[in-house]
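ugh ok fine here u go
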Amino acid sequence: MRTSRLAMLAAGAVMFTGVAGVGPASADPYDYPWCAQGPSLGYPGECAYQTYEQCLASVSGRYLYCGENPRFLFREPPPPRPYSRRHVRPY
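structure:
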């Protein structure tokens, strides 16, 4: 009886530490300009391609197509760099 309780307690502790170590999954680790899109991938798709050619090579034979990433197209531009007033001596 005592051994089964101890085994159940140990199994519960192992399961708890496994669940506690799992963090939330990110929606998409990539923000590249081209996405593989299709019915099985949802919208905007698998946006892991820097060039259109990379995307075409990936979708070949997979019943998918390539489209532009809307997150990439419509993102806010980065803030402007501060103007540097360095004095340059003429020659």
